[in-house]
Amino acid sequence: MFFVDTHAHLNDRKLYPIRHDVVKRALERGVKYIFVVGYDLSSSHLAVEIASEMENVYAIVGIHPNSIDEISRIGELESLLEERKVIAVGEIGLDYHWMTFPKEQQMEGFRIQIDIARRHGLPIVLHVRDAYPDTISIIEEENPPVPVIFHSFSDRPDTARWIVERGYFLSFNGMLTYKNRHLHRSLREIGPGNVLSETDSPYLTPVPHRGKVNEPMYVVDVVEKMARLLEMDVEEVAERLVENTRRAFRVALD
Questions:
Q1: What pLDDT, on the 0 to 100 scale, is given for residue 233?
Q2: What Cα–Cα distance (Å) separates residue 99 from each residue in 9, 53, 110?
Q3: Three state DSSP letters for the chain
Q4: How many domains does the chain have?
Q5: What is the pTM of this model?
Q6: Quick one: pLDDT at residue 111?
Q7: What is the mean pLDDT of the chain?
Q8: Hey, which of 110, 166, 170, 246 has its CA 20 to 30 A from 138?
Q9: Residue 200 and residue 5: Cα distance in Å, rounded?
Q10: What's the pLDDT at 139?
């Protein structure tokens, strides 16, 4: 049995200087694979760098909606997709919480990156904050022929059902360990079939580690919470999550 953190920011300033120690601690706790996710061009380059340094790390590159002005440099992002250990485009999507850029500008950048993923045959990893209706509308219109992963899922059970009914994936992190009934209900209703595990470290530290900087090793606590909510053995849930990760990212995990 092993665990996978499908969304971590070892490229963040809190973790990058100590990334080797962070990965070592994760491995010691049974977290065998970590996917480092970009959120702008600089962090995407760092994700590729980190993946090249460590065998058990893969990179995901993309332009977050709060950095969507960088879409003018889309050729630079697309060149990163040729790197051997880049396995998806992300995190991309819509963020109506901060509204750093107008909705129309976010939507345009989102569609451009969906098209790039389509042309390269890569999965897309979505950032959605206060924007599920518009995100779903764009996904329905674009109908990407690649796996779609809703990172850091935080919406209602009906949205979770919509995602899994279309064969897409949704990922849970430390928020699942909080007192969040609609997230608990979402997981119980859909079961483990199209679910992934993540930390979104260094953010959203799970219980019982609140107050500490989040790290990939804490994905184990997320999986343990999943197992309790689903009334399943941790080993069985972990195995299902690994298989789901293989399908979602089309990557071999041994």
A1: 98
A2: 22, 35, 14
A3: CCEEEEEECCCCCCCHHHHHHHHHHHHHCCEEEEEEECCCHHHHHHHHHHHHHCCCEEEEECCCHHHHHHHHHHHHHHHHCCCCCEEEEEEEEEECCCCCCCHHHHHHHHHHHHHHHHHHCCCEEEEEECCHHHHHHHHHHHCCCCCEEECCCCCCHHHHHHHHHCCCEEEECHHHHCCCHHHHHHHHHHCCCCEEECCCECCCCCCCCCCCCCCHHHHHHHHHHHHHHHCCCHHHHHHHHHHHHHHHHCCCCC
A4: 1
A5: 0.98
A6: 98
A7: 98
A8: 246
A9: 8
A10: 98
Question: Within a domain: residue 254?
Answer: no
Residue of 14, 74, 17, 64 whose CA lies nearest to 37:
64
**pLDDT tens readout for residues 104-123:** 999 999 999 999 999 999 99
Q: CATH no. for residue 55?
A: 3.20.20.140
pLDDT digits (tens, 9 = 90+) for 14-24: 999 999 999 99
Query: Which domain, by its residues, includes 240?
Result: 3-249
Q: How confident is the model at residue 101 (pLDDT cuts 50, 70, 90)?
A: very high
For position 45, what pLDDT does the model report?
Answer: 98
Whether omega for the bond prior to residue 208 falls within 30 degrees of 0, making it cis, is yes
Sign of CA dihedral 82, 172, 65, 8: negative
Q: Is residue 54 part of a domain?
A: yes
Residue 56 belongs to some domain of the structure: yes
Looking at residue 39, its pLDDT comes to 98
Predicted pLDDT of residue 190: 98
